[in-house]
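User: Reviewer 2 asked us to show a designed sequence for the structure in our supplementary figure. I'm pasting the C-alpha coordinates here. Could you produce the per-position amino acids so we can include them in the response letter?
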Protein backbone atom coordinates (compact mmCIF):
# COMPACT_ATOMS: atom_id res chain seq x y z
CA UNK A 1 0.00 0.00 0.00
CA UNK A 2 1.24 3.54 -0.79
CA UNK A 3 2.60 5.58 2.08
CA UNK A 4 0.37 8.25 3.61
CA UNK A 5 1.50 11.82 4.07
CA UNK A 6 0.02 14.79 5.84
CA UNK A 7 -0.66 16.51 2.52
CA UNK A 8 -2.22 13.39 0.99
CA UNK A 9 -3.76 11.57 3.97
CA UNK A 10 -6.13 9.51 1.80
CA UNK A 11 -3.39 7.87 -0.25
CA UNK A 12 -4.28 4.22 -0.83
CA UNK A 13 -7.98 4.77 -0.24
CA UNK A 14 -10.85 4.27 -2.69
CA UNK A 15 -13.79 6.67 -2.55
CA UNK A 16 -17.19 6.48 -4.23
CA UNK A 17 -19.04 9.78 -4.57
CA UNK A 18 -22.69 9.93 -5.66
CA UNK A 19 -24.19 13.10 -7.07
CA UNK A 20 -20.75 13.77 -8.48
CA UNK A 21 -21.77 15.48 -11.72
CA UNK A 22 -22.27 18.88 -10.04
CA UNK A 23 -22.20 20.88 -6.83
CA UNK A 24 -21.05 19.28 -3.60
CA UNK A 25 -20.36 15.85 -5.10
CA UNK A 26 -18.13 17.17 -7.89
CA UNK A 27 -16.15 19.33 -5.47
CA UNK A 28 -15.83 16.44 -3.01
CA UNK A 29 -14.56 14.08 -5.71
CA UNK A 30 -11.89 16.57 -6.75
CA UNK A 31 -10.85 17.23 -3.17
CA UNK A 32 -10.69 13.55 -2.17
CA UNK A 33 -8.51 12.94 -5.23
CA UNK A 34 -6.26 15.83 -4.19
CA UNK A 35 -5.95 14.16 -0.79
CA UNK A 36 -4.71 11.00 -2.51
CA UNK A 37 -7.79 8.79 -2.90
CA UNK A 38 -8.77 7.03 -6.09
CA UNK A 39 -12.31 8.21 -6.78
CA UNK A 40 -15.29 6.58 -8.49
CA UNK A 41 -17.77 9.28 -9.47
CA UNK A 42 -21.43 8.40 -9.91
CA UNK A 43 -24.39 10.33 -11.35
CA UNK A 44 -26.66 10.15 -14.40
CA UNK A 45 -24.99 12.79 -16.63
CA UNK A 46 -22.15 10.82 -18.22
CA UNK A 47 -20.52 13.77 -20.02
CA UNK A 48 -20.19 15.72 -16.80
CA UNK A 49 -18.56 12.70 -15.17
CA UNK A 50 -16.13 12.32 -18.07
CA UNK A 51 -15.13 15.98 -17.71
CA UNK A 52 -14.64 15.49 -13.97
CA UNK A 53 -12.50 12.39 -14.47
CA UNK A 54 -10.39 14.32 -17.00
CA UNK A 55 -9.90 17.19 -14.50
CA UNK A 56 -8.88 14.78 -11.73
CA UNK A 57 -6.48 12.91 -14.01
CA UNK A 58 -4.97 16.16 -15.27
CA UNK A 59 -4.15 16.96 -11.64
CA UNK A 60 -2.40 13.63 -11.22
CA UNK A 61 -5.30 11.71 -9.64
CA UNK A 62 -7.11 8.51 -10.62
CA UNK A 63 -10.86 8.42 -11.23
CA UNK A 64 -13.55 6.22 -12.70
CA UNK A 65 -16.87 7.44 -14.16
CA UNK A 66 -19.96 5.45 -13.23
CA UNK A 67 -23.00 6.71 -15.13
CA UNK A 68 -25.93 5.36 -13.12
CA UNK A 69 -29.26 6.32 -11.60
CA UNK A 70 -29.25 5.65 -7.86
CA UNK A 71 -32.96 4.83 -7.92
CA UNK A 72 -32.04 1.76 -10.01
CA UNK A 73 -30.90 -0.97 -7.62
CA UNK A 74 -29.50 -3.18 -10.36
CA UNK A 75 -27.44 -0.34 -11.85
CA UNK A 76 -25.98 0.35 -8.42
CA UNK A 77 -24.96 -3.27 -7.93
CA UNK A 78 -23.28 -3.18 -11.35
CA UNK A 79 -21.48 0.04 -10.35
CA UNK A 80 -20.25 -1.62 -7.15
CA UNK A 81 -18.93 -4.55 -9.21
CA UNK A 82 -16.97 -2.12 -11.41
CA UNK A 83 -15.44 -0.41 -8.38
CA UNK A 84 -14.41 -3.83 -7.07
CA UNK A 85 -12.98 -4.88 -10.43
CA UNK A 86 -11.11 -1.66 -11.24
CA UNK A 87 -10.15 -0.30 -7.81
CA UNK A 88 -10.39 -3.39 -5.57
CA UNK A 89 -13.47 -2.10 -3.66
CA UNK A 90 -14.49 1.10 -1.85
CA UNK A 91 -13.46 2.12 1.67
CA UNK A 92 -15.13 5.53 1.56
CA UNK A 93 -18.69 6.21 0.37
CA UNK A 94 -19.87 9.80 0.12
CA UNK A 95 -23.60 9.17 -0.29
CA UNK A 96 -24.64 12.55 -1.54
CA UNK A 97 -27.10 12.55 -4.48
CA UNK A 98 -30.27 14.45 -3.60
CA UNK A 99 -32.96 16.83 -4.76
CA UNK A 100 -34.91 19.61 -3.00
CA UNK A 101 -38.39 20.50 -4.25
CA UNK A 102 -40.22 22.69 -1.72
CA UNK A 103 -43.92 23.49 -2.10
CA UNK A 104 -46.87 24.15 0.21
CA UNK A 105 -48.26 20.78 1.25
CA UNK A 106 -51.81 21.77 0.21
CA UNK A 107 -50.68 21.99 -3.40
CA UNK A 108 -50.44 18.19 -3.28
CA UNK A 109 -47.39 18.11 -5.55
CA UNK A 110 -47.31 14.35 -5.12
CA UNK A 111 -44.93 13.76 -8.05
CA UNK A 112 -42.38 16.04 -6.42
CA UNK A 113 -42.92 14.37 -3.04
CA UNK A 114 -42.22 11.03 -4.68
CA UNK A 115 -39.10 12.26 -6.53
CA UNK A 116 -37.59 13.44 -3.26
CA UNK A 117 -38.42 10.21 -1.44
CA UNK A 118 -37.18 8.07 -4.36
CA UNK A 119 -33.83 9.86 -4.55
CA UNK A 120 -33.10 11.13 -1.04
CA UNK A 121 -34.32 8.00 0.78
CA UNK A 122 -34.55 5.02 -1.60
CA UNK A 123 -31.58 6.07 -3.75
CA UNK A 124 -29.50 6.60 -0.61
CA UNK A 125 -30.49 3.11 0.60
CA UNK A 126 -29.75 1.49 -2.78
CA UNK A 127 -26.27 2.98 -2.57
CA UNK A 128 -25.82 1.72 0.99
CA UNK A 129 -26.98 -1.73 -0.11
CA UNK A 130 -24.55 -1.82 -3.02
CA UNK A 131 -21.46 -0.61 -1.15
CA UNK A 132 -21.80 -1.69 2.51
CA UNK A 133 -20.23 -5.10 1.84
CA UNK A 134 -17.17 -3.37 0.35
CA UNK A 135 -16.93 -0.93 3.28
CA UNK A 136 -17.13 -3.70 5.85
CA UNK A 137 -14.54 -5.77 4.00
CA UNK A 138 -12.18 -2.80 3.64
CA UNK A 139 -12.56 -1.89 7.32
CA UNK A 140 -11.65 -5.43 8.35
CA UNK A 141 -8.59 -5.35 6.09
CA UNK A 142 -7.23 -1.86 6.70
CA UNK A 143 -8.77 -0.88 10.05
CA UNK A 144 -11.17 1.85 8.95
CA UNK A 145 -13.77 2.75 6.32
CA UNK A 146 -16.15 5.68 6.00
CA UNK A 147 -19.81 6.09 5.13
CA UNK A 148 -20.61 9.80 4.92
CA UNK A 149 -24.22 10.74 4.14
CA UNK A 150 -25.33 14.18 3.01
CA UNK A 151 -28.21 15.34 5.15
CA UNK A 152 -29.18 19.00 5.62
CA UNK A 153 -29.85 21.59 8.28
CA UNK A 154 -33.45 20.96 7.16
CA UNK A 155 -33.24 17.70 9.13
CA UNK A 156 -33.25 19.78 12.33
CA UNK A 157 -34.99 23.09 11.63
CA UNK A 158 -38.47 24.03 10.48
CA UNK A 159 -38.64 25.69 7.07
CA UNK A 160 -42.24 26.32 5.96
CA UNK A 161 -43.06 24.50 2.68
CA UNK A 162 -39.97 22.27 2.93
CA UNK A 163 -41.77 19.48 4.84
CA UNK A 164 -41.13 16.56 2.50
CA UNK A 165 -37.51 17.49 1.76
CA UNK A 166 -36.87 18.08 5.47
CA UNK A 167 -38.41 14.74 6.36
CA UNK A 168 -36.19 12.92 3.86
CA UNK A 169 -33.15 14.59 5.43
CA UNK A 170 -34.33 13.80 8.98
CA UNK A 171 -34.38 10.20 7.75
CA UNK A 172 -30.77 10.52 6.57
CA UNK A 173 -29.56 11.96 9.89
CA UNK A 174 -31.39 9.43 12.04
CA UNK A 175 -30.38 6.52 9.84
CA UNK A 176 -26.75 7.66 10.06
CA UNK A 177 -26.83 7.66 13.86
CA UNK A 178 -28.18 4.12 13.88
CA UNK A 179 -25.69 2.89 11.32
CA UNK A 180 -22.82 4.46 13.23
CA UNK A 181 -23.75 2.40 16.28
CA UNK A 182 -24.23 -0.73 14.19
CA UNK A 183 -21.21 -0.51 11.87
CA UNK A 184 -18.79 1.21 14.24
CA UNK A 185 -18.10 -2.14 15.91
CA UNK A 186 -16.87 -3.26 12.48
CA UNK A 187 -14.61 -0.20 12.12
CA UNK A 188 -16.87 1.51 9.61
CA UNK A 189 -17.34 5.13 10.68
CA UNK A 190 -20.67 6.71 9.78
CA UNK A 191 -21.28 10.45 9.63
CA UNK A 192 -24.02 12.82 8.53
CA UNK A 193 -23.14 16.24 7.16
CA UNK A 194 -25.88 18.83 7.57
CA UNK A 195 -25.13 21.90 5.47
CA UNK A 196 -27.00 25.18 5.44
CA UNK A 197 -27.34 26.83 2.04
CA UNK A 198 -24.64 25.94 -0.50
CA UNK A 199 -24.52 27.54 -3.96
CA UNK A 200 -25.10 24.61 -6.37
CA UNK A 201 -27.59 23.45 -8.99
CA UNK A 202 -29.90 22.33 -6.17
CA UNK A 203 -31.73 25.65 -6.16
CA UNK A 204 -32.26 25.58 -9.94
CA UNK A 205 -34.64 22.61 -9.67
CA UNK A 206 -37.03 24.53 -7.39
CA UNK A 207 -40.29 25.35 -9.20
CA UNK A 208 -42.30 26.87 -6.33
CA UNK A 209 -42.40 30.65 -6.81
CA UNK A 210 -42.44 31.48 -3.09
CA UNK A 211 -39.43 29.29 -2.41
CA UNK A 212 -37.58 30.73 -5.41
CA UNK A 213 -38.13 34.25 -4.07
CA UNK A 214 -37.02 33.19 -0.57
CA UNK A 215 -33.84 31.71 -2.00
CA UNK A 216 -33.15 34.77 -4.15
CA UNK A 217 -33.63 37.06 -1.16
CA UNK A 218 -31.30 34.88 0.92
CA UNK A 219 -28.65 34.99 -1.81
CA UNK A 220 -28.73 38.78 -1.80
CA UNK A 221 -28.49 39.10 1.96
CA UNK A 222 -25.82 36.54 2.90
CA UNK A 223 -22.80 34.80 1.44
CA UNK A 224 -23.73 31.18 0.77
CA UNK A 225 -21.35 28.28 1.36
CA UNK A 226 -19.44 26.92 -1.62
CA UNK A 227 -19.32 23.23 -2.62
CA UNK A 228 -15.62 23.33 -1.74
CA UNK A 229 -16.51 24.16 1.88
CA UNK A 230 -18.42 20.88 2.12
CA UNK A 231 -15.72 19.01 0.19
CA UNK A 232 -13.15 20.07 2.79
CA UNK A 233 -15.45 18.83 5.54
CA UNK A 234 -15.71 15.42 3.85
CA UNK A 235 -11.93 15.27 3.50
CA UNK A 236 -11.48 16.20 7.15
CA UNK A 237 -13.89 13.48 8.37
CA UNK A 238 -12.14 10.81 6.33
CA UNK A 239 -8.68 11.95 7.44
CA UNK A 240 -9.31 11.63 11.18
CA UNK A 241 -7.49 8.85 13.02
CA UNK A 242 -9.39 5.54 12.72
CA UNK A 243 -10.46 5.72 16.39
CA UNK A 244 -12.35 9.02 15.86
CA UNK A 245 -15.78 9.18 14.25
CA UNK A 246 -17.20 12.69 13.91
CA UNK A 247 -20.84 11.61 13.91
CA UNK A 248 -22.68 14.72 12.74
CA UNK A 249 -21.48 18.00 11.32
CA UNK A 250 -23.60 21.10 10.88
CA UNK A 251 -21.94 23.59 8.57
CA UNK A 252 -23.73 26.90 8.07
CA UNK A 253 -23.04 30.05 6.10
CA UNK A 254 -21.78 32.44 8.75
CA UNK A 255 -24.63 34.81 7.97
CA UNK A 256 -27.46 32.22 7.93
CA UNK A 257 -29.41 32.57 11.18
CA UNK A 258 -31.20 29.17 11.04
P1 LIG B 1 -26.78 19.51 -7.19
O1 LIG B 1 -28.13 19.61 -7.81
O2 LIG B 1 -25.69 20.35 -7.75
O3 LIG B 1 -26.29 17.99 -7.20
C1 LIG B 1 -27.16 16.90 -7.13
C2 LIG B 1 -26.44 15.70 -7.69
O4 LIG B 1 -27.28 14.55 -7.56
C3 LIG B 1 -26.11 15.85 -9.16
O5 LIG B 1 -24.80 15.37 -9.38
C4 LIG B 1 -27.10 14.94 -9.84
O6 LIG B 1 -26.54 14.41 -11.02
C5 LIG B 1 -27.26 13.86 -8.79
N1 LIG B 1 -28.49 13.09 -8.99
C6 LIG B 1 -29.74 13.58 -9.07
N2 LIG B 1 -30.60 12.58 -9.31
C7 LIG B 1 -29.86 11.45 -9.38
C8 LIG B 1 -30.16 10.09 -9.63
N3 LIG B 1 -31.42 9.69 -9.81
N4 LIG B 1 -29.15 9.19 -9.66
C9 LIG B 1 -27.87 9.59 -9.48
N5 LIG B 1 -27.53 10.86 -9.23
C10 LIG B 1 -28.51 11.77 -9.19
O7 LIG B 1 -27.00 19.83 -5.67
P2 LIG B 1 -26.04 19.76 -4.37
O8 LIG B 1 -24.65 19.51 -4.75
O9 LIG B 1 -26.37 20.96 -3.57
O10 LIG B 1 -26.67 18.52 -3.63
C11 LIG B 1 -25.93 17.47 -3.06
C12 LIG B 1 -26.57 17.05 -1.76
O11 LIG B 1 -26.47 18.11 -0.82
C13 LIG B 1 -28.05 16.73 -1.85
O12 LIG B 1 -28.31 15.56 -1.10
C14 LIG B 1 -28.71 17.93 -1.19
O13 LIG B 1 -29.96 17.60 -0.64
C15 LIG B 1 -27.69 18.27 -0.14
N6 LIG B 1 -27.75 19.61 0.42
C16 LIG B 1 -27.58 20.69 -0.39
C17 LIG B 1 -27.66 21.97 0.14
C18 LIG B 1 -27.56 23.19 -0.72
O14 LIG B 1 -27.93 24.29 -0.24
N7 LIG B 1 -27.08 23.09 -1.97
C19 LIG B 1 -27.87 22.18 1.58
C20 LIG B 1 -28.01 20.98 2.33
C21 LIG B 1 -27.93 19.75 1.77
P3 LIG B 1 -27.32 13.93 -12.33
O15 LIG B 1 -28.44 14.89 -12.57
O16 LIG B 1 -26.24 13.97 -13.38
O17 LIG B 1 -27.78 12.53 -12.04
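Assistant: Here is a per-position design you can include in the supplement:
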Amino acid sequence: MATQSIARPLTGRVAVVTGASSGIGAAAAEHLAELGARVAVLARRAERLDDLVARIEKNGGQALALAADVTDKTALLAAADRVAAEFGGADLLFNNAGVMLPAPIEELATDQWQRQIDLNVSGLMNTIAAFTPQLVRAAAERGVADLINTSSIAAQNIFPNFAVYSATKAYVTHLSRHLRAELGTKKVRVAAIEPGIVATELQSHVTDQGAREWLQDSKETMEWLTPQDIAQTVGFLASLPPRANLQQVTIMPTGQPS
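For the response letter, you might also mention the following. DSSP finds seven helices and seven strands in the chain. The longest strand covers residues 188-195.
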